[in-house]
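Appendix C reproduces, verbatim, an entry submitted by the partner laboratory led by Prof. M.T., so that reviewers can inspect both the input and the predicted structure.
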Amino acid sequence: MKKIQFEAKALNDQTLTYAAQELRVNKEFVELNIIEEKKSLLGLNKSYIVEAIVDFNVINDGIEYIKKLLENMEIEAVIEGKLTGDRHLMFSIEAKENPILIGKNGKTLEAIQSLVKNYINLYTDEFYIVLIDIGGYKDQRKKQLEILATKTAMDVVKTKVATKLGRMNAYERRVIHTKLSDWRDVATVSEGEEPNRYVVIKPSKK
């Protein structure tokens, strides 16, 4: 939870605006609490030690952000969100316009995912890994990648020649690494620079 403490003469909209600017978030998510009241020696002037807390729910407010994104695209959708692990968030989207939201080779999906990830991590102290699935695309893509990983690994074992796969995003590379993590005869390594990183499957050194 992001929070700061500072001294203010009153709790008003100006104080709220200041806190939001310091926290670099929208002030609708900022909650102010008085920690201590301070008075001058003569008691004529007083001020407050204020704690400003970001009141943000990564699932509910994440869903609301996605809704606004899709509303701007004039798309209605059913959106669900859940924690799938420690600071791992998964949002599922179902809409009539699924193909449009996915885009060619998942490019639009990746863009939406990047926007949502950046938005959520703006409001939190701890970094969250955010995944977006649209119409089951991620599950289908995962199965395709696992088949590719297995087939390529078998070829590498047979030929003893390393094979370079095509450009993949971080999620896709992780699928390949995970699928082949238990193979003794091959090893996987990510190479290249973003956004053109790829996986190399090569024979294990014995």
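Residues 137-159 form the longest helix (23 residues). Additional entries are available on request from the coordinating office.
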